[in-house]
Specification:
The protein is mainly beta and 345 residues long. It folds into 2 domains: 178 residues, 7 Propeller (Methylamine Dehydrogenase, Chain H), CATH 2.130.10.10; 112 residues, YVTN repeat-like/Quinoprotein amine dehydrogenase (Methylamine Dehydrogenase, Chain H, 7 Propeller). It has no helices and 30 strands. It has a 4-stranded antiparallel beta sheet, with no helix packed on it. It has a 4-stranded antiparallel beta sheet with strand order 2-3-4-5, with no helix packed on it. Strand 23 and strand 24 form a beta hairpin. It is globular and about 60 Å long. GO terms for molecular function: RNA binding. Belongs to the WD repeat STRAP family.
């Protein structure tokens, strides 16, 4: 029976959503953090109301938990540690910040010399990796916040994304047209990949050591250990972000045509495509359990989508139509405090 996607729409950001990340699965479920750009050059910055304000949400429902207040500029990157006890953000105010994700308190501000674009915790949450416009990777020991960070140079343009990989023994980083693999112990480059167009996003999948890279209309999969190519797909439009399902069954991608695309990872077949937002899609990520994926857009919203439409999960409840009514089955979204209602995309 045909089922139609009915997303959950999370409002709250008034500016474009440029990054999002899920925590691991904790005893309290899993969580989602999102970052937004804040005001553009032409917009007044009145009392800080347009500054980028990262938001924390319950991952399976999108329910707002809190907002991290403190940056004075666009927030380009946001992440949570594995157990969702800490958050980190990267911003245009030349700082990265580390937060207590339970209380919302700012724990430390790490000053940089230029715009910071990306942050990533080690698995034990003891170190934070940052990268940005000054082309340097920095590794901060969060137990010694007053100590100078270790620095790795070698990128020739601003760093867009930097991630720990191989159980934190290696680092993957992307600048405009290059992806580099670094050895953490020696702080030296192991290998690099060059692209003929700008790299728009990068995702690391620890299970299987897979690296997902998007550039132009391409979604490419490489070994995170050797950077050797595994496979690649071509999308019908420029793609800004892609994410691989934890079980490696599906791939989702979004980009400049406002659409979300879902592919079979093994065959490359396009399974679904639909208009996901009212503006370009900047980021997509699967949840840690693979039951849903989140998308963030220029339109200022974050949306949650079911991986398998029609399953009862989170706020979704499958309601079958009466027989012979000719209607398609539609998943409904039930809110505890109201009667069941459907949210239109």
């Amino acid at each position: 029976m045909a089922m139609r996607q009915t997303p959950l729409t999370c409002s709250g950001h008034t500016r474009p959503v440029v990054d999002l990340a899920f925590s691991g699965i904790t005893p309290y479920g899993y969580f989602l953090i999102s970052a937004c750009k804040g005001a553009g050059q032409h917009l007044p910055r009145l009392s800080g109301q347009h500054y980028g304000k990262p938001m924390l949400r319950q991952g399976d429902t999108g329910d707002w938990i809190g907002t991290f207040l403190g940056h004075k500029g666009a927030v380009w990157g946001a992440t949570l540690n594995k157990d969702a006890t800490k958050a980190a953000t990267a911003a245009a105010d030349f700082t990265a910040k580390v937060w207590d994700a339970v209380s919302g308190d700012e724990l430390m501000t790490l000053a940089h010399k230029h715009i910071v674009k990306t942050v990533d915790f080690t698995q034990d949450s003891n170190y934070l990796l940052t990268g940005g416009q000054d082309k340097l990777l920095r590794i901060y020991d969060l137990n010694k916040p007053e100590a100078e960070p270790k620095e790795i140079s070698g990128h020739t343009s601003g760093i867009k994304k930097a991630l720990w990989c191989s159980e934190d023994k290696q680092i993957l980083s992307a600048d405009d047209k290059t992806v580099r693999l670094w050895d953490h112990a020696t702080m030296t480059e192991v290998k690099s990949l060059n692209f003929n167009m700008s790299v728009s996003s990068m995702e690391y999948i620890p299970e299987g050591e897979i690296l997902v890279i998007t550039y132009g209309r391409s979604i490419a999969f490489h070994s995170a250990v050797s950077l050797d190519p595994i496979k690649s797909f071509e999308a019908p439009a420029t793609i800004n972000s892609a994410s691989l399902h934890p079980e490696k069954e599906f791939l989702v991608a979004g980009g400049e045509d406002f659409k979300l695309y879902k592919y079979d990872y093994n065959s490359g077949e396009e399974l679904e495509s639909y208009k996901g937002h009212f503006g370009p899609i900047h980021c997509v990520r699967f949840s840690p359990d693979g039951e849903l994926y989140a998308s963030g857009s220029e339109d200022g919203t974050l949306r949650l989508w079911q991986t398998v439409v029609g399953k009862t999960y989170g706020l979704w409840k499958c309601v079958l139509p009466e027989e012979d009514s000719g209607e398609l089955a539609k998943p409904k979204i039930g809110f505890p405090e109201t009667t069941e209602e459907e949210i239109e995309s």
